[in-house]
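User: Here's a chain of 113 residues. Predict its fold as tokens.
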Amino acid sequence: MKKLYPTLAVLSLFLLCTGMILAQGERPPAAQGQEKVYMFEGELTKVDATDKTISVKSSKGKEVAFRYTDETQVSGAEGGIEGLATKSGTHVRVHFDAATKTASQIEVMQRTQ
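Assistant: Prediction complete.
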């Protein structure tokens, strides 16, 4: 009887730890293959073709730099990214991955008159 309680305690502890490990399991990585896309709107302030970045300033004065790639889609500007270089001061909407701040799409907004 004296050996039964310590044995049960060790066995219970072992089963508890094993259960906790198995409960965690092998979870798929969060958002693997899927980017969490956010949107930022503001005035285009700078296009740096060397670093492949653009800077956009919000109406509240916050300026954010975004990376772009060859896969970044540009709409509303002729010539793609190169066409943005002449659009400084234009209102744009940037769809980007929050983790890397890489733009997936840049929309040049048309001014309403």
